[in-house]
Amino acid sequence: MNLNATLFAQFVVFFILVAFTMKFVWPPLMKALDERAERIASGLAAADRGKAEMAAAEKRIASELSATRDESAKRIADAEKRAQAIIDDAKQTAGVEAARIRAEAEADATQQINRVRDELRAQVATLAVKGAEQILQREVNAAAHADLLSKLATEL
């Protein structure tokens, strides 16, 4: 066999192999590579969209967190004001109640003083009658002298 004929046969086989590869192997391979490149590109685009959405979500979260903090601080301040108002109201009510109790106690004390004075007047009147009875050595009629005793009691 001749070197030229072998070389020519190898060229023919090589071109047939290249033609077969270009016709049947290369298009599915290129199609798979193109699909993969497209998937990679769409994945990168989705990742970029995801990053943008994540940044927007973080901004929303930060603003909502700030609003929530402001609202909770406002509620705490309102609760403290309300608690202080309740305490002040309770102090005022307690002051009014203390004044009322003090007034009742003073009125009760005044009534007791007056009652004790009346009892003391009655006792003094009785003692005065007994003293006068002993001085006069005779019995004094308390019913007859009731007017005199009442005048004496009012003078005391």
UniProtKB/TrEMBL annotation:
Do the record's keywords include Flavoprotein? no
Q: Name one GO cellular component term.
A: plasma membrane
An example Pfam family from this entry, by short name, is ATP-synt_B
Q: Where can this protein be found? A: Cell membrane; Endomembrane system
Q: Any idea which UniProt keywords this protein has?
A: ATP synthesis, Cell membrane, CF(0), Hydrogen ion transport, Ion transport, Membrane, Transmembrane, Transmembrane helix, Transport
Q: How does it sit in the membrane?
A: Single-pass membrane protein
Subunit structure of this entry?
F-type ATPases have 2 components, F(1) - the catalytic core - and F(0) - the membrane proton channel. F(1) has five subunits: alpha(3), beta(3), gamma(1), delta(1), epsilon(1). F(0) has four main subunits: a(1), b(2) and c(10-14). The alpha and beta chains form an alternating ring which encloses part of the gamma chain. F(1) is attached to F(0) by a central stalk formed by the gamma and epsilon chains, while a peripheral stalk is formed by the delta and b chains. F-type ATPases have 2 components, F(1) - the catalytic core - and F(0) - the membrane proton channel. F(1) has five subunits: alpha(3), beta(3), gamma(1), delta(1), epsilon(1). F(0) has three main subunits: a(1), b(2) and c(10-14). The alpha and beta chains form an alternating ring which encloses part of the gamma chain. F(1) is attached to F(0) by a central stalk formed by the gamma and epsilon chains, while a peripheral stalk is formed by the delta and b chains.
Its function, per the record, reads: Component of the F(0) channel, it forms part of the peripheral stalk, linking F(1) to F(0). The b'-subunit is a diverged and duplicated form of b found in plants and photosynthetic bacteria.
Q: What is this protein called in UniProt? A: ATP synthase subunit b
Q: Which organism is it from?
A: Massilia forsythiae
Name the gene behind this protein.
atpF
